[in-house]
Amino acid sequence: SNKQPETDLYAVISQRRNERKGQFDSMFSSLVSKYGGGNMPEPSEEEFEAAQKKLEKGRSSKKSKQSKGK
After folding, report:
1. Across 22-50, average pLDDT
2. What's the domain count of the chain?
3. Where is this region: Disordered (predicted)?
4. Is the Cβ–Cβ distance between 20 and 27 less than 8 Å?
5. 61 lies in which domain range?
6. How confident is the model at residue 66 (pLDDT cuts 50, 70, 90)?
7. Distances 30 to 19, 22, 39, 47, 66 between C-alpha atoms, Å
């Protein structure tokens, strides 16, 4: 063809990207339908703070274990 090679390459890349996006969207939709993930309510302030403290506690204990092992 008389088209510029860059134009052909761009067209191929765009087409592949669109195909992959479609495949990903399809896979993601099937996972959502299989495992739920519907409208989960957001946690209350108390639940969120409790989860955050639990995560922070886990991080600090991992750091102290690593420094003791050296």
Report:
1. 87
2. 1
3. 35-70
4. no
5. 5-36+44-68
6. low
7. 17, 12, 16, 30, 41
DSSP, res 42: P
Listed in sequence order, the residues at least 6 apart from 51 whose beta carbon sits closer than 8 Å to its beta carbon are 43
Which token pair is 57? Answer: 């506690």
What is the per-residue burial (b if ≥16 Cβ within 10 Å, else e) of 3-19? eeeeeeeeeeeeeeeee
- CA dist 21 and 4 (Å) reads 26
Q: Distances in Å between the alpha carbon of 68 and those of 34, 45, 62, 63, 64?
A: 44, 35, 10, 9, 6
Mean pLDDT on 30-45: 82
The length of the chain is 70
